[in-house]
């Protein structure tokens, strides 16, 4: 594919991206058409181009405090699938992450999406977290705020091997420290599990009906499905001058 080019997305790319992501899933509901303009505005979206046609897209958010790159919304135009574009696009943004001194890359894949899981594994990603997702029903909790949250956060991170996820703005997972999580949430919840904002370590643990990511299944009013979080340690020696 000598004609394939990859670059940061620009505003004029949005219409084409929306066009081929509007019906990504048979049941509808892809978030990319709603998010692409914001991603482009923030400078985090990248596109694959063949003969002036946008044929692929991915968003990469750099969580510099944790030296982690979060990849999301990898989509390939239906007419250009199984041509290696997803691999090329992913490898390109991983290279950009390395150039920025980032040590780890993470992404999330639905458990039914075997082709994407095979691609991730072939690129050196490995599973680090399983998440159950959806809109959770309210549960009985004790709420903790302020510096007292720190001990609860430490306990939760111990159970996740140091990973934290959030639904704010968009779904995202990262390596995390107590200090980082303290900047991301206003309160924690103790109930059937530990609720770090909208991220539940254990079954959904939240005092209001809210979209959550949980490490165990539980009481969902609207269950989205099971997702696998993958991580790859980046080779800093591959950084280009």
Provide structural commentary:
The protein has helices at 14-21, 32-42, 85-99, 114-122, 149-159, 178-184, and strands at residues 4-8, 45-50, 53-63, 68-76, 104-110, 126-136, 142-145, 163-166, 172-175, 187-190, 194-196, 199-201, 210-214, 220-233. The chain is an alpha+beta fold and 241 residues long. Helix 1 (14-21) packs antiparallel against helix 2. The protein is globular and about 55 Å long. The two termini are 25 Å apart. 37% of the residues are buried.
The average pLDDT score comes to 93
Radius of gyration computed on alpha carbons: 18 Å
Strand order of the largest sheet: 1-2-3-4-5-14-6-13-12-11-10-7
Oligomer: single chain
Helix content: 25-40%
Largest sheet: 12 strands, mixed
- The helix count comes to 6
How does the helix and strand content classify structurally? alpha+beta
Q: What global shape is seen?
A: globular
Q: Calculate the terminal CA-CA distance, rounded to whole Å.
A: 25 Å
Number of strands: 14
Order of helices and strands: EHHEEEHEHEEHEEHEEEEE
User: Which regions have little confidence, pLDDT < 50, spanning 5+ residues?
Assistant: none
Beta-strand residue percentage: 35-45%
């Amino acid at each position: 594919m000598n004609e394939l080019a990859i670059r940061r997305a620009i505003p004029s790319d949005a219409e084409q991206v929306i066009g081929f992501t509007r019906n990504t899933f048979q049941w509808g509901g892809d978030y990319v058409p709603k998010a692409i303009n914001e991603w482009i505005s923030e400078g985090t979206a990248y596109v694959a181009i063949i003969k002036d046609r946008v044929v692929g897209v991915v968003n990469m958010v750099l969580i510099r405090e944790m030296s982690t790159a979060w990849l999301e919304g990898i989509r390939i135009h239906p007419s250009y699938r199984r041509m290696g574009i997803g691999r090329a696009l992913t490898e390109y943004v991983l290279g950009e992450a390395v150039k920025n001194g980032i040590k780890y890359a993470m992404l999330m894949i639905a458990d039914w999406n075997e082709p994407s899981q095979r691609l991730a594994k072939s690129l050196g990603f490995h599973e680090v977290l399983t998440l159950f997702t959806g809109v959770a029903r309210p549960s009985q909790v004790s709420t903790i705020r302020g510096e007292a949250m720190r001990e609860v956060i430490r306990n939760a991170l111990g159970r996740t091997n140091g990973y934290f996820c959030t639904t704010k703005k968009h779904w995202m997972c990262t390596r995390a420290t107590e200090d980082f999580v303290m900047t991301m949430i206003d309160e924690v919840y103790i109930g059937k599990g530990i609720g770090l904002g909208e991220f539940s370590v254990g079954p959904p643990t939240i005092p209001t009906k809210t979209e959550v990511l949980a490490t165990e299944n539980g009481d969902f009013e609207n269950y989205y499905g099971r997702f696998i979080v993958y991580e790859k340690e980046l080779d800093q020696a591959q950084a280009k001058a």
